[in-house]
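ugh ok fine here u go
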Amino acid sequence: MQCGVCQALFEVTDHDRLFFEKLSPEIGGKKMALPEPTLCPACRLQRRLAWRVERSLYYRTCDLTGKKIFSIVAPDSPYKAYHHEAWYSDKWNALDYGRPYDFSRPFFEQFAELLREVPLLALNVAGLQNCEYVNQCGWSKNCYFTIEADQNEDSLYCYRVFWVKTCVDCTEVVRSERCYECIDCENCYNLKFSQLCSQCSDSTFLFDCRGCRNCFGCTGLRQKQYHMFNEELPRGEYEDRLRAFELWNETHRQAALKRFEELKLQHPRKAFIGEQNENVSGNYIYESKDCTECFGVRACRDCRYCSLVRESRDCMDYFVWGDNAERIYESQCCGHSIQSLSFCCDSWDGVHDLLYCYQCVLGSNHCFGCVGIQRGGYCILNKQYTKEEYEEMVPRIVAQMQQQGEWGEFFPAAISPYAYNETTAQEYFPLTREEAQERELTWKENLPFTVGKETMRLDQIPSRIEDVQDSIADQVLACQATEKNFRITKKELEFYRDMRLPVPRFHPDERHLRRMLLRNPRKLWERSCRKCGKEIETTYSPDRPEIVYCEECYLATVY
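structure:
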């Protein structure tokens, strides 16, 4: 088939068709068949991500309480936003915004009107203590600008970290402490500038290492200590060399990084990152079975085109969360004991049998085209119906949507409550303002950052952290790459002093993007194992310089 947006050819397999049959909803004894998609998997993901905001946080007023809050809904947005405590309170009811369905008008047009009226969650957060400036975050304490993260403490500027403590500028780090600029690491302690490591400690510049401690600039090591650039050294010599290295010294750091990168190119890479899987394709997959083109999933079964999902079964085109999810199709940010959701956003906690719903939570069920419903059931456009009325109306609505080409399509990006460049879609699928406007997508000129407000030049910041004064926390800096203004918080400064790290010269968003670029893309290529010549599927494109091995050759090499 040819994608209706990018015009790329894509295949709808017989296995895909079995999924459509399995996931097609049945209401009142009538099964409403899901059609084959009109967009390729990448464009389907882009459309869903145009409804997700992670890092664009604004300071505005809660429309219910009048208090100043942080929110992903901009202060000049036409949409209402409530602080999460107010949104979950009994001081308002989403059913008050209900309206009858008009069969003379398109569904998406009516849904867009409802969406403009119902108050939205300012931030998707829960169970926080002293974590005011975070998003997509839960059950954490003393965290700052940490996004899509749970069960953390005293951590700053992290993305998708879980059960971590005192970590800064980390991405995809789990059950670790005192880590800095680490990516895809697990069960680590006092680790800096490292990637794809587990059970490592007291080390700097590690790549693909396990069970290592007191190592520097090493790749592919297992259960080693006192190694520098993969050379084993007596403990005294290792410590002498390490003392001669000054992490705050830009010349030292760049020289070490250059040698480290050269060593990484000599180390074979496994074609696929993951363990304990059976019959899977994609990358960053763990403890899963029968998953096709999935990325960043764990403990999943029978899933296709899913990303950043855990503990899910029989799902397709699903982005973020899971946690005991089953039969989810074309949805994003839905999770925690959910079943039978199609074309839904931000719906969680025991919800089931939802179609085209946004921010419907806390056990809501059998809803169609609803916004903000809590603990409700048998609603259409937020209007309450009996079970019999609901089961009679929904098949009629679906039939109308089929005639108008709406049924089976996710919400159009053009009716998202967020501007395209505010959303996660801009990070994964960047567009210029002109390109976005050509697609009739909204664009925001004033994103939540400033330029040109700096009160201190970067060259005025001492290189040695010991020489940096407390007063830097009162200054405004400018990113070395983007010129975006940013600050150094007092807690952040304490961390740099404790870890003997230099003050960063880049805005937190730029640091995040640079870490993300170190991870492989969500795309698969065919290439040959460098050692045995076997054909492999991998996220390393054939024109990349890395040495890529099949799993068997890789394991034989590193063990």
